[in-house]
Amino acid sequence: MSAFARLRYKHSIVDLKTSSMKMSKMPVEGNSYFNVSRRTFIPHPVPCGAPTDAMNFAYAMCFGAGHHRAHRTGGLMMRRAGEMFSNAFQGKLAEVCLHSFLTRRGVECTVPDFGVYGEGVWDGGDLKACGKNLSVKSAAFFSNLLLLESRDYDAFGNYLPNVGKGIPATFDYCVLVRISPDAKGLFRRNGFFASNDVSKDFLAGIVSREQWTYDIAGFVSCEQFVSALRAGNVIPQGALLNGRMRMDADNYYIQAGDMHRADELACLLTKQ
């Protein structure tokens, strides 16, 4: 990061070890939880070629040699390949976007892993920057929640599927990346979302016609996630989010408007 950039950020950087970041709870009416602490989506173009790379990866994971869970941890609904593809595509695209965001600001960062793994084989996390493990969570552009499935984590923020496998089980920072257009909505409109069989050429055509953009809604430290976890920031299975979307599994949440802003992350990492 340039000297100018350091001067620009130095007065706004939060010491995340001592920060008392507001962890607001969502208002509840009956069985509905309402997301009120929001952050405006500010679109940036995704890196050139990233949608195609993410599409190829997601197709291999969901229709090829890879493995993607057919249901969420603790969830009741079985996910078809079309939905799993949407999640894998959006998630990998988010990793590429965060990598681009950080490297353009002078942060040394590992490249996204495009390895295709079978069942029982887990990758070692999303990205690593300046020695810190970054967990990348993706969402549609209109989302204002960081959601983490509660049965995937213990009381100390360890990601249980990775425990005992010789790979990182905790993150230092969790980053929420939002993608436009909404991948699930896009594939649903094209009659693919609920499918278990689709041609790669058909998907490539859908992806190539869109103007993909992203923003980074914010980030939290592992300590702040654990604080939210222990404070009971949970949307239970079966509850309605904003009165509309029924939750398939219990999820810890942090509202986007409560998270640290993206520009703080680059300066924070270069100070390590």
Please outline what is shown here.
This protein has helices spanning 3-9, 50-63, 81-103, 183-189, 200-208, 222-230, 262-270; strands at residues 28-29, 32-33, 44-45, 127-129, 132-140, 145-149, 173-180, 213-221, 234-235, 240-241, 245-246, 251-255. It has 272 residues and is of the alpha+beta class. The chain has one domain (40-119, 126-270).
Description:
The protein is an alpha+beta fold and 272 residues long. It has one domain. Helix content is 29%, strand content 19%. It contains 7 helices and 12 strands. The two termini are 13 Å apart. The relative contact order is 0.23. The model is unreliable at 1-14 and 66-72 (pLDDT under 50).
Features of the shown structure:
29% helix; 272 residues; 5-stranded mixed beta sheet; 4-stranded mixed beta sheet; single chain; globular; 12 strands; alpha+beta
Domain count: the total is: 1
Q: List SSEs in N-to-C order.
A: HEEEHHEEEEHHEHEEEEH
Shape call: globular
What Rg is obtained from the alpha carbons, in whole angstroms? 18 Å
The CA-CA distance between the termini, in Å, is 13 Å
Strands ordered across the widest β-sheet: 3-8-7-5-4
Strand runs, count: 12
| Percent in helix | 25-40%
The assigned structural class equals alpha+beta
Question: If helices are DSSP runs of H or I spanning 4 or more residues, what is the number of helices?
Answer: 7
Average pLDDT figure: 86
Proportion in β-strands = 15-25%
Main sheet: strands, sense, barrel? 5 strands, mixed
Ranges where pLDDT stays below 50 over 5 or more residues in a row are: 1-14, 66-72
